[in-house]
């Protein structure tokens, strides 16, 4: 069932969820970003074909999030787990991600007086993503890379460059944190002190990576 040409919807507020619902009277099509039980019952009554059309629109937001998490998020920070990031750089990555999620989710309709559209706040976006973001993903990948380096043979070039002490003097002023210091700081937040004892246990190490990607303190 397709929408008819120039068919205008009748909009109303879903009392169950507070979201705006658009109903096309002639086609029987209903569009809602997050339907309540009453809305779903109404969709079931209008027919199977129209329900499938509604389901396509309903899943668009979740599908877009999934595409971002599987295609964009792994590509943007590619190789960044080997860098040391400043707070300014981390903030730039978070701003980039929030812009994408605001475009995917759209504004939220609030029923205050005549009702108005409101841009989703950073806290709302964080709750929708269950606390996960691109910076936490990078910190988790750093832990994964640290375990990979520690398990390497001693004659590998990467292992030698990781363990070798550089000679010479530093510049004046406070030095930037080394990559290893930043990763150890993340492990301390997770409550892991003697992390070298867990490197050989790949399953346990993967648990640390998953915890870092969703930890509220990072």
What is the arithmetic mean of pLDDT?
A: 76
Q: Number of helix segments?
A: 8
Global outline: elongated
SSE-based structural type = mainly alpha
Taken in chain order, the helices and strands follow as EEEHHHEEHHHHH
Per DSSP E runs of 2 or more residues, the count of β-strands stands at 5
**Largest beta sheet: strand ordering:** 1-2-3
Task: Please indicate the percent range of residues in DSSP E strands (runs of 2 or more).
Answer: 5-15%
Terminal CA distance reads: 48 Å
List unreliable stretches of 5+ residues.
1-19, 26-30
What number of structural domains do the residues give? 2
Share of helix among residues?
40-55%
Rounded Rg? 24 Å
Report on the biggest sheet.
3 strands, antiparallel
Give a brief description.
The protein has helices at residues 37-46, 48-72, 87-105, 122-128, 134-151, 157-163, 179-189, 202-214, and strands at residues 10-13, 20-24, 29-31, 108-110, 116-118. With 218 residues, the protein is mainly alpha-helical. The protein has 2 domains: 10-59, no CATH class; 72-161 and 178-218, no CATH class.
């Amino acid at each position: 069932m397709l929408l008819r040409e120039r068919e205008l919807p009748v909009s109303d507020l879903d009392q169950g969820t507070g979201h705006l619902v658009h109903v096309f009277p002639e086609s029987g099509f209903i569009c809602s970003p997050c339907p309540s039980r009453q809305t779903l019952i109404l969709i079931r009554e209008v027919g199977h074909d129209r329900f499938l059309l509604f389901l396509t629109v309903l899943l668009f937001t979740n599908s877009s999030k999934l595409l971002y998490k599987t295609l964009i998020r792994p590509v943007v920070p590619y190789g960044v787990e080997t860098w040391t990031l400043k707070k300014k750089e981390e903030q730039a990555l978070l701003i980039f991600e929030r812009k994408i999620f605001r475009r995917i989710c759209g504004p939220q309709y609030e029923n205050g007086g005549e009702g108005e559209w409101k841009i989703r706040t950073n806290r709302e976006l964080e709750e929708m993503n269950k606390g996960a973001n691109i910076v936490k993903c990078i910190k988790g990948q750093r832990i994964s890379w640290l375990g990979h380096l520690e398990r390497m043979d001693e004659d590998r070039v990467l292992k030698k460059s990781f363990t070798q002490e550089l000679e010479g003097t530093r510049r004046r002023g406070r030095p930037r944190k080394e990559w290893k210091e930043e990763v150890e700081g993340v492990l301390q937040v997770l409550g892991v002190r003697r992390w070298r004892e867990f490197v050989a246990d790949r399953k346990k190490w993967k648990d640390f990576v998953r915890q870092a990607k969703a930890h509220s303190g990072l």
